[in-house]
Design goal:
The protein is α/β, with parallel strands linked by helices and 321 residues long. 37% of the residues lie in helices and 18% in strands. The protein is globular.
Length: 321
Amino acid sequence: MRAPYDPDLLAGMETMRQCFEPVPLRADTIGPSREHVDKLLATLPRPQSAAVAWREASVIGPGGNEVALTIALPRQGAPGAQGAPAVYIIHGGGMVLGNRSMTAPQAAELVERHGAVVVSVEYRLAPEHPFPAGLEDCYTGLTWFAERAGELGADPGRILVTGTSAGGGLAAGLALLARDRGGPPLIGQLLDAPMIDDRNDTASSRQYDGIGVWDRNDNLTAWAALLGAAAGGPDVSPHAAPARETDLSRLPPTFIEVGAAEVFRDEAIKYALALGAAGTPCELHVYEGAHHGFAGFSAQAAVSRLAVQARQNWLDRLLAR
């Protein structure tokens, strides 16, 4: 039996469906869905603020491909001009949709509130570019950011990684990859409703089948696009599906948030518990009646305000250090 949705979130959930799921996501609808989302995002202006300056950069990725980056940073004279916290954002979209422009509002807010230098990465999407292409692009952008943080006014020893949905899964995979490769050190990972388990064998993955936004069928489609026939089988890398990692030690302090009424609920909870068992500091928030992506589409709902405040409290503590 499923718990009911918060009534204050229902209108926002329908708006989110119209924006990002005009048709159910299946193998033959990935292309049209991606085109729809890209057109929608192209109509949204980049946030303009007297405190925020925007730059573009690119770096050559592991396959010789160009990895595009958008940088948001304090304007001259704004807080954090030197030694600022550094935030690396990865956009969502189920590994198959979206682009880095989705993260612009969050990036601008981080600059305004924390004086942070923020980099958003454009990574290759599945199924055209299956794992590990997207994650390797994210790693390329992270190493570029760490090497040039000082030039941008940021502290290379204060990098936080964050993402929502697929971006949260990539952020979690990136933290594992950076640890395993001896890559840039991270001070934290903020995982918003992360997509981290290809097996789809939890109670919540079965409860939200044909209901809500980003249901079980969408999720199965996305994992199959990323991993092909290996999805759900025994040979999937934890870098692709972090819930499969058996050693969660030596990872940075973690914040995980998830709706109680969505597919990712149980895998997020299990991951948080496993992080804690491994000695990794982890703060977990599960929001009653909340669907996937709820806070972004029902900003005035009480549960959304609660979620935003909890996230800000954690960031305030982490980025002030």
